[in-house]
Design goal:
Helix content of chain B: 25-40%
Low-confidence stretches of chain C: none
Order of helices and strands of chain B: HEHEEHHEHEHEEHEEEEHEEEEHEEEHH
CATH topology of the domain at 24-109 and 184-254 and 345-417 in chain B: FAD/NAD(P)-binding domain
Low-confidence stretches of chain B: none
Structural class of chain C: alpha+beta
Strand content of chain B: 25-35%
Number of helices of chain B: 11
Number of domains of chain C: 7
Structural class of chain B: alpha/beta
Distance between the termini of chain C: 90 Å
Mean pLDDT of chain B: 96
Largest sheet of chain B: 8 strands, mixed
Largest interface: B-C, 118 and 121 residues
Distance between the termini of chain B: 43 Å
CATH topology of the largest domain in chain C: FAD/NAD(P)-binding domain
Strand content of chain C: 25-35%
Chains: A mainly beta (89), B alpha/beta (418), C alpha+beta (971)
CATH superfamily of the domain at 24-109 and 184-254 and 345-417 in chain B: FAD/NAD(P)-binding domain
CATH architecture of the domain at 24-109 and 184-254 and 345-417 in chain B: 3-Layer(bba) Sandwich
Oligomer: heterotrimer
Number of helices of chain C: 22
Radius of gyration of chain C: 38 Å
Shape of chain C: elongated
Number of strands of chain B: 18
């Protein structure tokens, strides 16, 4: 069971959260009509074996989107931060 | 090579079973091959077999980092079906079904392909309509399909919950009689033995650590057992396709997710068909050994670890108990997991990579097992001829860029949802 | 009822004040409280308990705990019928009913036992090599026969009457195992003030101490430890509880058998409880399990683990045999031998070692145990139970079997091949144990963070300082299997007794190249039974290593998979099954619908009124009537399930502009607008109406199905993508009840009800939004229409929902108001050509749905870029059309494939997505997606439905069947 320390609510079971996928690509500018840019954002994944930056939504909690750094092999959660801080690492 | 038959079985038994040859040679890697297939699962072995048999490629090696069939081939819930609706999928999976139907005799290895039929349950009028669309397309493509009423489903699988306690009452089902199950390990072993018979080197305990490049072209692989040169390198490593492709500098429309499966203690026959629940992610069948084999939803997050967690255990068990209330007191014997290549539209990739000399077969999501024969068939064709087989022509990587997704479920670019 | 011939007159840890009666295969027996079914059977002299899986050989009790491979029985009757239960894990209760299984016609005479006497055709993997012909479908014939021989017990035939619960727990220290080392660890942590949970599989604490003779110093220690733990408020002891799985972040799955020791659970109590326990640290004190040495006919009833014989003797006062041959390669079996001798048994000890520790030898001889050192059991004899063993001389250094030297009569063979630490939970975490050559056992190597392994699980010899140590582990002579004696008839030598895997099977697998441990397991099914090979896996690996001529350490182990012991589906599924499998969402007006004859349909989690049949009316008749009356007069439908999102903030208009394809800045306060939004990949996600309530406040509706998806997407966009926007979104789906009032007389009706609003067409035009009151009830009115009629959606806070509904209903009486459900709602929208779920199916674009003109050219919106990809803009994509059957009376079906006449093949040229009988047109119509779309207007094509063998000719026409100019809307 993943245990995710929501910055607003504290440490909770994963079942309170919904997975939001890869957080490594920044959201493209809406005005950017470049199909390649959007294709990359929407469809292409680094999919690393190891440390992965990803979004989680505290769906059954504060409903905040979180940026979580987690290992895809050990499942260890390294860090959790609100997504709205905008740190794209 | 001893042909397997009832006769050879008896003859060998009388001789104390001491005369059986190895099912396949323990090949040592040679310095160079025409084609190296990375991945000794069903897909890789089938690809090698058809390369040798259909295309006459003589020097083929399959490299397996562990043991043959140790990945998803030996971890799935063994369901075979060809009930695909999207143009680009339908005929491919039906060809796979046709190959399945002759596979045991083709390989001279009983893969126990059991066409016991599959019910895809519907729990609302809208689901019945969607099932009708799928079934009609199947029929128009020469694939068997029937739309069953609640009453007919009940006759076929009386163990399902037809009481008024069902949260999602069964309205009916889409039925494919030719669907069923097969013995998963036997598929890997059967292809391995048959490929070996056609001269393919099957090299276990040989992990690929890098690709050898020459002026951009892939010309071989580095392995834990030394470098191996190859005219062409094919990847058939579902679950790890991204990792291997990254060695060629490629990023793919794939996420790796883990999927659990479960088996109960063996009991006498209670469920003669394969059942897919329509109200939750659950499919269940009973193996010949007697255990109920069940699969559920993905664990839901990127993972390379073959170790599922409790939330999906609970969800799957709640679903199975809802669908088959009588199994409440049966016990789960084993739970295991595999890691899946989940693509962004739920459909696979079989293509020549943008890097010369490299070929990719992956992205099988949940559905790789049933695709094994056709996957090997088409991948072999792609490698041998440097162009896609008609049946797999739409399994490209560019389809996302071009807007040609093959989204069977209409879930969009959320890999975990397919 | 009989007396208990093999029960000792005294001793044991059973409660002789409480006599229990039970039946096995219909025969009545007696036991004592504290017995297991296995101990009670042994005390009653019952040794034949079951038949084996493949060869149907007679089998008896082999072990004394969860590792039991053999003594599987079916427990209880009716709905509580439970197959494949290990008799060694069943606490005896009064009235217990058990049956043997996998035998026909009876346990004593099993016809399928004949398989055992055939030549070894049925060796490992035999089915891969045969059943290949004569036809391609041959397997389907053979399989039917084979399936019947598969399985063990019969499945339950009635619903389970018992309840199950799920519970949560947190602790600082989880101690797995309530034996001496676990209790010591719990005491230490508990004294430090840590919150401790101790889980013990057995009903009582004590673990291995319970198998020692009663009254020793360890009993005093145990009693004191139990008392002290009970007095510590921060320690919770959970007996009858198994830690079956170790998961990420030190989360454990526990299965508590709350009431399995009773005939049935007391009222209001669950049968079993599944726990999710979150620990900060875990102490693995799970002890060790003994393994046998393999020899010929080692599966006969009467052959059992030495530790089991000892346990039955000391814990249950049951004498498993009176003429005992103990067979060992290590010191621990001597305890059993000595204590059995002390209890009056005639004991011979066969030890493969030529030399044993002097003290051990003295103790054995003093107890009257006759010693045969440097010997081995080369095979057992007997038909339904062991009656003798063949002893051979044995030299561990050159372990080729000699000829039979002597035959020892016996009724019990107590065998010990050494011990295997129970490390399953550690291995489940990916920390595979490694083989220790000195101890000849698997020991932990890397202990994951947060875990500690103590006691037997850590291969520690002495359970505790101050207690007499267990026997030395290091004096073992690694021996795994004894070959058939020279010149003797070959006997089956079972490695996995449950799955009938013999040494020959392992040799065969190796011969054929299935030599990886996982191949071996899968080819032979070694270790795949209900016992998961707890007593057999290491032997199999060692035998394989011998065949591969490799050290045991390099062969590896198979993967340990949860659960540690089988766990019921009932417990894991918890209470969330049946009617409670998923929550039910009901409208605030649900009770009215129910009270007024509505038939409901599931829409996702929602239950919505489908139609309201009059007496004897079918679905078709009801919806046609309902829809017709709406067009002719007025009707009302509950639309409370629509998703509703409150969008507020100074940047709200900007936000809507980004998520909807159309323009929102120009929408004035007091007006509503239809909007469509896309996914990022350019596919249509959802549609709905959004109203501007005030300058910075919008009220959005979404479809019922997509409410959650849209809300989640909005939160993502506002928090992660566009945090600079000052917008707040709130889901208010449950806060508002919604009623659509539709039909030419809807204005008249509502004007009568909501008297503080001017309903004049100019004062309250199409797409107007107004607030007023229906009596005392505050209402928000949107003049919008899904049906194409003059219509309003009336919203009110949910608690007023039913009152408002009744008010509309009452006022509607004089207007001939009809109440309609989702089927009529669908009919009306199809007549109007509005798209819904069947068309917005996650694959269609704006232009597929005929909505391309909505897309703004002046501003970017989400999904706009990828919508332009070539595959989504191809001219021949199927696009929305209307369809009517050329023969008006012929029904059209959703899911029919549109084909050119005469070309019924492939994927056709389109699909019928939604159909209805149109009361307005008096014919059958539908909408669908057709290649070329409206360019085919007027063409007659086929709607093909092979599933029913139907072909229906349909004419392509505009999907706007009714009032295409929208005059009725604006009236």
């Amino acid at each position: 069971m993943l245990r995710i320390a929501c910055p607003y609510c504290g440490e909770r079971d994963q079942v309170e959260f919904a997975y939001g996928g890869d957080a490594s690509e920044g959201f493209p500018e809406l005005a950017d009509s470049d199909v390649g840019r959007w294709t990359k954002f929407v469809f292409v994944r680094e999919n690393p074996r190891g440390v992965h930056g990803e979004y989680w939504h505290h769906q059954y909690g504060c409903r905040q989107w979180l940026r979580v750094v987690r290992d895809t092999v050990t499942h260890q959660v390294h860090s959790v931060a609100p997504a709205r801080q905008g740190d794209r690492t | 090579m001893t042909r397997y038959s009832a006769l050879s079985l008896i003859r060998n038994a009388l001789a104390g079973n001491r005369g059986w040859p190895r099912a396949w040679r323990d090949a040592q890697p040679r310095a160079e091959y025409d084609v190296v297939i990375v991945g000794g699962g069903g897909h890789g072995l089938a690809s090698a077999y058809y390369l040798a048999r259909e295309h006459g490629v003589s020097k083929v090696a399959v490299l397996e980092k562990g043991y043959v069939g140790g990945g998803n081939t030996g971890r799935n819930t063994t369901i075979v079906r060809s009930n695909y609706m999207i143009d680009g999928n339908t005929r491919f999976y039906e060809w796979s079904m046709k190959l399945w139907e002759g596979l045991s005799r083709d390989l001279n290895f009983n893969v126990m392909f059991s066409q016991r039929g599959q019910l895809n349950l519907c729990h609302s009028k809208a689901q019945m309509d969607a099932a009708a669309r799928r079934g009609n397309i199947m029929r128009l493509n020469g694939i068997d399909a029937e739309l069953l009423s609640r009453h007919e489903v009940r006759r076929m699988a009386p163990i399902l919950d037809f009481s008024d306690r069902a949260r999602f009452p069964i309205h009916g089902a889409l039925w494919q009689q030719r669907a069923g199950t097969a013995r998963h390990d036997a598929v890997a072993w059967g292809y391995a033995r048959a490929a070996d018979r056609h001269g393919v080197d099957i090299i276990q305990q040989c992990e690929v650590t890098g690709l050898i490049r020459d002026q951009g072209r892939v010309v071989g692989v580095d392995t834990t057992r030394g470098p191996i040169r190859a005219g062409k390198v094919g990847l058939a490593v579902a679950g790890h396709t991204s990792e291997l492709a990254a060695m060629a500098g490629l990023r793919l429309p794939i996420e790796t997710h883990l999927l659990q499966a479960f088996v109960t203690e063996p009991v006498k026959p209670v469920l003669d068909v394969v059942v897919a629940f329509g109200a939750a992610h659950l499919y269940v069948s009973q193996s010949d050994h007697g255990g109920l084999v069940m699969g559920g939803d993905l664990d839901g997050y990127n993972s390379y670890e073959q170790r599922g967690d409790l939330p999906i255990v609970e969800e799957t068990m709640a679903a199975v108990k809802s669908l088959l209330p009588l199994v409440s007191r049966l016990r789960i014997l084993r739970q295991w997991s595999g890691v899946m290549d989940m693509t962004m539209d739920g459909s696979p990739i079989i293509c020549k990579a943008p890097v010369d000399g490299l070929y990719i077969n992956g992205g099988w999501c949940y559905g790789g097992f049933k695709a094994t024969p056709a996957s090997g068939w088409c991948f072999a064709h792609t490698i041998a001829n440097d162009r896609a087989h008609d049946l797999s022509a739409r399994f490209t990587m560019e389809r996302f860029h071009r807007g040609h997704q093959l989204d069977e479920k209409g879930m969009g670019p959320i890999p975990g949802a397919h | 009822m009989t007396d208990q011939p093999d029960r000792l007159g005294q001793g044991g840890r059973i409660d002789r004040s409480r006599a229990l009666s039970f039946t096995f295969d219909g025969r009545a027996y007696a036991g004592w409280s504290g017995d297991t079914l296995a101990s009670a059977l042994l005390a009653n002299g019952v040794h034949l308990v079951g038949r084996s899986f493949k060869y149907h050989r007679p089998r008896g009790v082999y072990a004394a705990g969860v590792e039991e491979p053999n003594a599987l029985v079916t427990l209880r009757k009716g709905g509580r019928h439970e197959p494949n239960v290990a008799a060694t894990t069943v606490e005896l209760f009064d009235g217990l009913v058990a049956e043997s299984q996998n035998r026909w016609p009876s346990l004593g005479l099993d016809m399928l036992g004949a398989i055992d006497r055939l030549p070894p055709v049925f060796a490992a993997g035999f089915y891969y090599k045969t059943f290949l012909g004569p036809t391609r479908k041959a397997w389907m014939f053979y399989e039917r026969l084979i399936r019947r021989t598969g399985g063990m017990g019969k499945p339950p035939g009635q619903p389970d009457p018992d309840r199950y619960e799920k519970a949560h727990a947190f602790c600082d220290v989880l101690v797995v195992g309530g034996g001496p080392s676990g209790l010591a660890a719990a005491l230490a942590a508990g004294r430090d003030g840590a919150r401790v949970v101790v889980v013990e599989n057995e009903p009582v604490l004590g673990g291995s101490l319970l198998a020692r003779p009663r009254g020793g110093e360890s009993d005093a220690w145990l009693a004191a430890a139990i008392d002290e733990l009970a007095a510590l408020p921060n320690v919770r002891v959970m007996t009858r509880t198994t830690a079956f799985g170790a998961y990420d972040n030190l989360v454990f799955g526990l299965a508590e058998r709350v009431n399995d020791h009773l005939a049935e659970p007391p009222p209001y109590q669950p049968r079993q409880r599944y726990w999710v326990l979150r620990a900060r640290r875990a102490v693995l004190a799970s002890g060790m399990i003994e393994r046998p040495i393999v020899f010929g006919n080692n599966d006969l009833p009467g052959v059992m683990l030495a530790s089991a014989a000892r346990c039955y003797l000391n814990r249950y006062a049951a004498l498993a045999g009176r003429t005992v041959v103990a067979f060992t390669n290590n010191d621990s079996a001597y305890d059993a031998a000595i204590e059995l001798a002390a209890a009056g048994a005639d004991v011979s000890m066969v030890d493969v070692r030529r030399q044993i520790p002097g003290q051990l030898e003295r103790q054995a001889r003093d107890a009257g145990v006759s010693l045969l050192l440097g010997h081995a059991v080369g095979g057992a004899n007997g038909r339904r139970a062991v009656d003798s063993v063949d002893v051979i001389e044995f030299d561990a250094a050159s372990p080729s079997a000699g000829a039979v030297k002597s035959r020892l009569p016996c009724d019990l063979v107590a065998v010990s091949g050494g011990w295997t630490p129970t490390l399953h939970l550690l291995a489940q975490r990916g920390s595979k144990p490694v083989f220790d050559e000195t101890l000849a056992m698997l020991v932990p190597e890397v202990v994951p963070e947060g875990f500690r392994v103590v006691g037997g699980a850590a291969a520690e010899e002495a359970p505790l300082a101050g207690l007499a140590p267990e026997r030395s582990l290091a004096t073992i002579a690694p021996v795994w299997a004894i070959a058939d004696p020279l010149g003797a008839r070959p006997r089956k030598k079972f490695v996995d007794i449950q799955n009938d895997v013999t040494t020959d099977d392992i040799s065969l697998a190796h011969l054929e190249g299935y030599e990886a441990v996982e191949h071996l397991k899968r080819y032979t099914s070694q270790g795949m039974g209900t016992d998961q090979g707890k007593t057999s896996n290491l032997n199999a690996l060692a035998i394989l290593a011998g065949l591969r001529d490799e050290p045991r350490g390099t062969v590896g182990t198979t993967t340990y998979r949860p659960p540690y012991t089988p766990v019921s589906i009932g417990a894991l599924g918890g209470a969330g099954t049946g009617q409670h499998f998923m929550p039910v969402r009901r409208s605030p007006i649900h009770d009215w619908h129910q009270g007024n004859g509505a038939v409901f349909t599931d829409a996702g989690l929602w239950q919505r009124p489908w139609y309201y049949p009059k007496a004897g009316e079918s679905l078709d008749a009801a919806y046609v009537r309902e829809a017709g009356e709406v067009r002719d007069g007025v009707g009302m439908v509950d639309v409370s399930s629509l998703g509703k999102i409150d969008v507020q903030g100074p940047d709200a208009a900007d936000f809507l502009d980004r998520v909807y394809v159309n323009n929102w800045r120009s929408l004035p306060v007091g007006k509503a607008r239809y909007g469509v939004m896309l996914r990022a990949d350019g596919i249509v996600l959802d549609d709905g109406t959004t109203s501007r309530i005030s300058e910075d406040h919008y009220f959005m509706t979404t479809t019922t199905a997509n409410a959650g998806v849209v809300m989640t997407q909005f939160e993502f966009l506002l928090q992660a993508a566009w945090p600079e926007l000052k917008v707040q979104v709130t889901s208010v789906t449950g806060q508002w009840a919604g009623i659509a009032v539709a039909g030419p007389r809807s204005r008249d009706l509502l004007a009568r009800l909501v008297v503080d609003l001017d309903f004049d067409n100019d004062a309250f035009p199409f797409m107007g939004v107004r607030h007023g009151h229906a009596g005392d009830i505050p209402v928000r009115l949107l003049r919008i229409s899904f049906s194409g009629e003059l219509a309003y959606e009336v919203y009110t806070p949910a608690d007023y929902g039913e009152e408002l509904w009744r008010a509309v209903h009452d006022h509607g009486r004089e207007f001939g108001l009809v109440v309609y459900g989702t089927e009529a709602l669908g009919a009306l929208r199809i007549e109007k050509g509005h798209v819904a779920g069947p068309e917005i199916d996650g694959r269609t674009t704006l232009s597929d749905l005929g909505l391309e003109r909505m897309a703004s050219k002046k501003k970017p919106y989400l999904g706009g870029a990828l919508m332009e990809r070539e595959g989504l803009t191809e001219a021949d994509r199927p696009r929305l059309v209307g369809l009517e059957t050329t023969d008006r009376g012929t029904k059209l079906r959703a899911g029919a494939i549109l084909c050119q006449p005469g070309r019924h093949q492939g994927h056709g040229i389109g699909v019928v997505t939604s159909v209805t009988y149109s009361p307005a047109l008096g014919g059958n119509i539908g909408i669908g997606l057709l290649a070329g779309g409206m360019s085919r207007e007027g063409e007659v094509i086929d709607a093909v439905f092979p599933l029913r063998g139907e072909v229906v000719a349909v004419r392509v026409r505009s999907p706007h069947f009714v009032d295409p100019e929208g005059e009725r809307l604006h009236a």
